[in-house]
Specification:
Elements lengths: L7 H9 L2 H6 L3 E4 L7 E4 L1 H5 L1 H15 L8 E5 L2 H13 L2 E7 L7 E7 L4 E7 L8 E9 L3 H12 L3 E10 L5 H7 L4 E6 L4
Parallel strand pairs: 3-4, 3-7, 7-8, 8-9
Antiparallel strand pairs: 1-2, 4-6, 5-6
Length: 197
């Protein structure tokens, strides 16, 4: 659909607001959740409005339709990475694989443990989820400390896949995750950065 074929409300949005700002305007900040001092970035308003959800998905799909960036498979991180990752995979005409918290997958898995602020967590992937040499797009809703995405990247690489890019709706750069991920050579694409606000 070309811009000129869109309803006037879409045309108005496209010409007067950047996609990034439009999406940012629909992310809810919840102060002091889950603990005091945390500014929680809630993406659920992006999903519950049909137009906003379409703009969000299209922003990713248009990028990854480019032949040089087109993945063979989309891998989504538990759990919000499932929501957007599966829709993006469907739109791109490629498969989707879930990277789940430990104990949720029924078949033979590989696992990777990573450190959290308090303790550690483990994620798993089915051993047949990707093939050696697959180009994989790794997706989550948000990059904070980068631990989950780093663990997902290591899992996919254990199975011989190439993580061609990591992507997320939101980056919280002051928590250092995106810098840490880029330092490993992983290209990142995010739509909205929240830095110190």
């Amino acid at each position: 659909m070309h811009n000129r074929d869109w309803p006037s409300s879409h045309r108005h949005f496209m010409y007067n607001t950047s996609v990034n700002q439009y999406l940012r305007d629909h992310i809810r900040t919840v102060p002091d959740w889950p603990t005091p001092g945390v500014q929680f970035r809630d993406i659920t308003p992006l999903l519950q409005d049909a137009k906003v959800f379409r703009v969000l998905i299209d922003a990713f799909v248009h990028r990854y339709m480019d032949p040089s960036l087109r993945p063979d498979v989309v891998a989504g991180l538990d759990a919000r990475g499932f929501i957007i990752g599966s829709v993006i995979a469907y739109e791109l005409g490629v498969g989707f694989v879930p990277i789940r918290k430990k104990g949720k997958l029924p078949f033979t898995t590989v696992e990777e443990t990573y450190e959290l602020e308090y303790g550690s967590a483990t994620v798993e992937l089915h051993v047949d989820a990707v093939k050696k040499g697959n180009r994989v797009l790794l997706i989550d809703d948000l990059i904070a400390t980068g631990g989950t995405m780093m663990a997902g990247k290591k899992l996919l690489e254990k199975l011989g896949a190439e993580v061609m890019e990591g992507c997320a709706i939101v980056d919280l750069p002051e928590l250092g995750g995106s810098a840490k991920l880029r330092a490993t050579g992983l290209p990142l694409f995010t739509l909205v950065d929240f830095e110190g606000d």
